[in-house]
Inverse folding.
């Protein structure tokens, strides 16, 4: 006898590093979105929505050819006409493009934006690191003052405080400007000169392309070599020195805890002067929940007028993971009312009642499968309904629809004609 084994059909799965965020896990995401939007609004930030797909050149020119993102993490492909396109790995470049494209500088050079949305980087997936991940991003254009640097760090700490986060620390550094960078680069190259044999191939290439990147290398042997490397902080020009001093004193007087971290470089080329990261102790290796910095040359570099810029990005997925660990999930919202309508006539009436209640913001549901009273009671319990409404043939004839409080088991009867307004009164109390 030949046994024909039915081949089990393989179900479709998400791509590696991509994931669904399911309704049962969405409460924290929504809580963060709400708090962030409220905070941005109070500080005068306007929401901007940018495309997920841009010309590859936008990212290679802004983030920098010799960075991890551009060298190996971007999702880049040719479209049908052969144009090279990239799924956005971050938001700053696109927002700068938008600022220039719409000549926003002409009507009002000072602009504050925020956005929330997915970013794409082809990294090795692990906890806190995904190929599609989400960022909350804020950018300020046209303000050179160091107060804005402090204010952005303040906004981050305020948001995290409102979300109840603990165990976070702000690491702050200054990367200098085009005036002081050459002196720092010379010092760095002198330092490395005798240690080239211990650097990875990537770093050896970076020596010519962008030496600052070497300080950001994650390879252990490179990290060891660079432990005593010169720091940008020791090579700041007077302007950068003053700028950084204002950032620090402002943060101090505002009571924002921070650590000056000489080794903080950030993985993108466009940063100048202040750069920072908010780190957590709760996520193991993926310790940065947010990063930001000033980019005074980027608007010009991408074809706009000389305009200072500064911004930050919060790793939304990591933020949610920290909140999960701290058990900051809000209670799931329960159903206000479940309608148990037995028979065709009651079902038809119930359908209209439920829509009217929904319109009035009352969380109401009913079941249209013609199930028994017992089965529908079970469903009401499953949906965690606060009240059930019971309407069968008898209740309709007697003009007495039953409303039962599922917690106290108390019941009241309501007449059909005034049922909806009566219910609205009860629920809006
Ligand atoms: P990391 O050093 O962890 O790779 P990064 O410096 O590349 O971070 P940024 O480009 O500064 O990250 O992005 C800002 C924030 O976005 C990070 O602090 C982090 O919280 C989050 N982030 C970056 N890459 C990922 C990713 N692949 N998955 C989830 N979150 C990420
Ligand atoms: Mg990275």
């Amino acid at each position: 006898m030949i046994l024909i084994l039915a081949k089990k059909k393989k179900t479709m799965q998400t791509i590696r590093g991509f994931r669904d965020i399911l309704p049962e896990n969405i409460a924290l995401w929504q809580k963060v979105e709400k708090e962030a939007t409220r905070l941005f609004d109070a500080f005068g930030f306007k929401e901007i929505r940018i495309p997920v797909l841009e010309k590859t050149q936008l990212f290679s020119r802004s983030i920098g050819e010799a960075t991890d993102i551009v060298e190996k993490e971007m999702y880049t492909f040719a479209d049908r006409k052969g144009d090279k396109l990239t799924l956005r790995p971050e938001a700053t470049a696109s927002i700068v493009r938008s600022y220039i494209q719409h000549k926003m500088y002409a009507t009002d050079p000072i602009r504050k934006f925020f956005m929330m949305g997915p970013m794409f980087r082809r990294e090795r997936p692990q906890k806190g690191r995904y190929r599609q991940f989400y960022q909350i991003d804020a950018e300020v254009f046209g303000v050179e003052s160091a107060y804005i640097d402090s204010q952005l760090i303040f906004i981050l700490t305020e948001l995290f405080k409102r979300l109840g986060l603990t165990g976070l620390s702000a690491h702050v550094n200054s990367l200098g400007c085009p005036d002081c960078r050459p002196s720092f680069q010379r010092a760095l190259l002198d330092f490395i000169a005798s240690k080239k044999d211990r650097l990875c191939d990537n770093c050896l290439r970076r020596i010519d392309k962008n030496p600052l990147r070497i300080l950001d290398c994650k390879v252990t042997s490179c990290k060891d070599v660079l432990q005593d490397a010169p720091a940008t902080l020791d090579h700041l020009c007077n302007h950068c020195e003053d700028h950084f001093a204002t950032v620090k004193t402002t943060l101090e007087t505002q009571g924002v805890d921070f650590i000056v971290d000489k080794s903080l470089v950030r993985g993108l080329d466009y940063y100048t002067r202040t750069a920072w990261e908010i780190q957590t102790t709760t996520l193991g290796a993926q310790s940065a929940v947010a990063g930001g910095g000033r980019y005074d040359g980027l608007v010009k570099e991408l074809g706009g007028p000389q305009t200072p810029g500064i911004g930050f990005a919060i790793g939304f997925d990591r933020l949610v993971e920290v909140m999960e660990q701290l058990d900051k999930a809000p209670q799931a919202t329960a159903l206000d009312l479940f309608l148990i309508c037995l028979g065709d006539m009651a079902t038809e009436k119930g359908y209209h009642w439920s829509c009217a209640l929904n319109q009035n913001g009352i969380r109401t549901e009913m079941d249209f499968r013609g199930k028994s009273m017992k089965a529908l009671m079970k469903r009401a319990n499953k949906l965690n309904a606060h009240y059930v409404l019971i309407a069968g043939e008898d209740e309709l004839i007697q003009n007495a629809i039953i409303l039962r409080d599922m917690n106290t088991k108390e019941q009241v009867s309501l007449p059909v004609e005034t049922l909806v307004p009566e219910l609205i009164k009860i629920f809006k109390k």
